[in-house]
Every structure is written in C-alpha cells, then in structure tokens.
Amino acid sequence: MLYRKAGIFHTDYAADRALFPIPADRWTIGLLLLIAATAPLYMNSLYLSSYLLPWLVWTAATLGLNLILGWAGQFHLGYAAVMGIGAYAAVHAVRTGIPWEIAIVLAGFTAAVIGIGFAFAALRVKGLYLALSTLALQFVMDWTISHVQAISGGTQATLQAPDIRLLGIPITSDAGLYYIALVWCLLVTSFMLNLKRTALGRALVAVREKDYAAAVIGVNSFYFKMVAFATSSFIGGVTGAILIGTFYHAVTPEQFSVDVSIQALAMVIVGGLGSIIGSYFGAAFILLMPGVMNSFISWLANLLGLSLSLETLAHLPQALYGALIIVFLLVEPLGLGKIYNNIRDYLLVWPFGYVKK
Amino acid sequence: MALAEDTSNPVLECRSVERRFGGIVALNGIDMEIRRGEIFGLVGPNGCGKTTLTNAITGFYPPQRGNILFNGNDITGIAPHKVATLGIARTFQNLALFNGMSVLDNILLGRHTHMKPGVARTALYWWLARSDETANRAVVEDVIDFLQLESVRDELVDGIPIGLKKRVELARALAAEPNFLILDEPMAGMNQEEKEYMARFILDARDERNVTVLLIEHHMDVITGICDRMLALNYGAMIGSGKPADVVADPRVVEAYIGGAHVSR
Description:
Chain A has helices at residues 13-16, 23-37, 39-42, 45-71, 79-95, 100-122, 127-147, 149-152, 174-195, 199-209, 211-216, 221-248, 258-271, 276-304, 310-331, 335-349, and strands spanning 159-160, 164-166, 169-171, 250-251.
C-alpha cells in the first residue's frame, strides 16, 4: 500500500539494476537527502555537531567494517586500529603542509597498505583464529602508536589536529564540518550500494558463503579477501581522519583503543551483517542509546519519586542497553536492518498479506 | 550423435592418474579419454573415487602421479580458480549455491571469469561497470531461458526447492560458457519427471551449447540412456570402459555394483 511494485515495468537490464527500482523509494531517498542537506538551517548546532555528525562518521566506519564482516565474511576485531592509522597519518600529513583533501586520501592508503601487509599474514587462518590475529593488529598498533614518539608525541600526549582547509578555504563552522561528514558518508554508502550489483560484490559473497564453490567458478578467494581488507581499511583510514578532523579536533591513542573496535563490531552486528540501512541504524543505536537510556532512567526515577544512588544511575542504563541489544538480536539475528526489511516487505503488500511480494 | 566424433583431439585426457590419502589409494592409475561433443558417464559404488577424480581434474586434490591434459595442455596441479578460466565448469554432489543471494546473482557469478571485478569499477559503476554488467546479464538471461528458470529469477536461492537448486547450479556452470562440464550426480534425490527434465537439459546443453559433458550418476537408466561412452570404477581402479551397454553387462561391473550372486545368473 505504502510502497507499490505493481505496474512498474523495466524494459532494459540497466533499469532493472538501478539502485532504487521502485519510484516510492526514489522519492523517499530524495526527501531524506533534502532533509540531510538542509539540516544546518533548522537544527540546533549542538545537536548537529554532537549527534548528527558523529553518527554520519560512525556510519561510514560501520559500512567499512561491514564490507569485511558482512560481505566478505572475515572477522576483524581491530578496526579501530585501522581508523587510528588513518587519523595519525592525516594529522601528520597536514602538519607537514600537505593539503587536507590529499592528506585524508594518503591516510586511507596508509591504512590500506598496513591493512594489506597484515592481512597477508592473517588471512592464512580462518574464523576464530583470524579474529584473534586481527585482535593482535589492534594491540600492535596501540603499542606502536603510543610508544613511538614520532607518531604520538609521547605516551600520554595529545596531538592537536590542524583546522581543515578545503581548497585553501578554512572550514571551522559546525555546518561546514557537518557537510564534510555527510559527503563522506554518502560516498561510502553509494560504494556499498553499488557493491550489491557488481561482480566484485558477488565475488565477495561467494568467498563468504563457500570458498570451494567460489574457486570452481574462477574466484580466487585469497585475492578477493585481500581486496576486501584493503578497501575496508581504506574506508576506515579516511573515516578515522575525518573523525579527528570534524569531531575530536585532537588525536590520542585512547580514541582508537580495543573497546572502540568492539563498539564498531557491535554497530555492525546490531545493525545487521551485510545491510546498508542496518549500518545506519546500528551506528545510531550504539552511539545514541546510552545517552537516551540515561535520560530515560532519570526521567523514570523522577516520575516514580525514587531516589536512585549515583552508582545505580551510572550502571543501570548500561545494563539496560546491553539487555536491549540481546533482545533485538533474539528477535532478529540479522539485526535492525532485517527488522526494517521485514516491516517494509509487510507494507509492500499491505493489506493483502496473502499476496506474494 | 549431434557432433561428429573426433577421436584425434580429446577434450580431456587422464594418463595413469594416481591419488592417495595417507595409506588409502583413492585413484589407482586411471586412464580416461573424453572426446569432443561426447557425454561421458562415470559410475561406481560409493567411495570408489568418482568425486576424487573430478577433484583431481578441477585442481582441489592434484594427483600425486600421472597427468591430466585439457585440450592437449597439461593442467595437472593447477589451482582450482585457474582451472575455471580454462573453460572447465562443474556442479557439486551436495549443492554449492551461494545463500543470501538471488537466483539471478548466483547465475551471474558464473560469468565471473568473463568480467573484471574491481574496486574502481564498483565505485564508478555508472561509467565503468554498467555496460559490462548489462552485457553479461544478457548472456545470463539466455541461460535462464534455456533452463526455464524465469519464474524464480528474483527469489533468494536459499528458499527454492532442491530440484530447482540443482538446475540453478547447472545454470551457473553453463553461464561460464565452458567447453567442458562436469556434473557430479545432478539427479540425486530427484523423481522420475525431474530426472527426465534434467537428462533433456544435459542433451540440449551438449547439442546447442557445444559442451562436452562428464556425468557422474548412480541412475543406470540415465547413463545407458544419454551417455556415449562410460567408465566404471571400483576401489579407485578402472573395472570397465566403453559403450554403456557393454560396460553395464560386464560381470565385473555387475559384481561391484549389485553383488557377486547376480553375476552367475
């Protein structure tokens, strides 16, 4: 009812493979883009820079991790380290006078090169062993970054990130930084959308599902795993650089520690493996839910006239937030993206539920 | 016979191929020659080495001794994904479709060796990949048409019945436009009608798409019905080869398959 497929006919293969073959979807996307593009006009700059912007940047990171985890099916427990490599590379590049837009590309390539070098060794093992060896990447990078003076400036040091300059124009306003995050997130999203319809994306899924069957149709599993690692590291590196440039404005090793890796992993899994819309939901859920839970608990305590101790107020939201993740995954193991798809499929034929979609 | 039999230039040749797993001799000196345009049957009791032989040809278990020649070139020990680029396609005894993708995407994967997957092509799909994707889609639609899979084209492959899954796997193999096709028990678990359909598809594939077929099957009616020549294995050794009618009548083959008591009758 809300969406309609009936009466939509595609007369060539390109139209059939369009990103959004249903007109209703195209209108929705257009509307969302308009809302996103005009956000600085009507949105309080606090919300813009402390909720919307980090959400977009983390969505890009989630998509990058989803490429390796959801598409190629390879564990990665060191994604924060990859982002950290990008962040430090960009900061140092800008400090030596390289323009920011080139510096973030360099950051991406640095992350990709280190990612490939590492993957070359790590990809010789599979499954849980791969997960553990990617965790090793995290710890090696943590140690290297904090102990090599030339990178971090000392164990406890914080490196100030120079202001972003695009084509020589300094960008410091909240709106400007928001647009940078938005454009990067949209670029990564369009890449991932295209991945759903190109030979590369299919090859990655083949490697994920059955590597022997992939080999028989000519897919070189090892090569495509490497491509997945490199691409995902590139996205992670650039995202790390953008996270520092637009949000933190300074870089320390703790911003890319192992718990951040786990957080990124949670975003992918809660959002849904291999789901693009799910990556948006997952990043939003993991980023915003702790805060929302906090205010909800205090509101509830006020309402019921309970006086909760500070300790309880600090820990209860965390516990509830954890419980909520478990509930969501029990309801739908493929995450929020799948829940969205189920609702969408239902609405596609509502109220004629007996019709096959 | 649709194509003139050409004995001078075999598509595939196995020369005393031997493969051991520890102390077990899975293949013991197999000689096999498959001629262009032929449907070649491979039979034998369970565990006799049929699948091991296909795995030796496709590079999963390279033989320890002997050679495998494809179109006159030695392909012994070449990695599986490189064997595919030479024009050898196969299906699996236990289905090996890629779950989570549509039937169409599964068959499109068969075009992998004809396409150039890459990061730049994916990022700049509209300029670098669209024409390639469309051209290969046309080939795939041809195969879908050939195997009558139109109605399930957009279904997820996880959810379709097993008979159709077998057909999708054949479609994926044919989409690669191979000149040699290995079918590992394509009719396992099928009823009579589905078997007849599949047999017809195999004959049509040979006649219309110029594919030489190596067919592994337990259904003797299919083997005698559509195969031009065949080879019977037992415990990794050859026990009979030639025209199906002769091989099936061979006492050694009957003994291996049905048991010694029947031979004397």
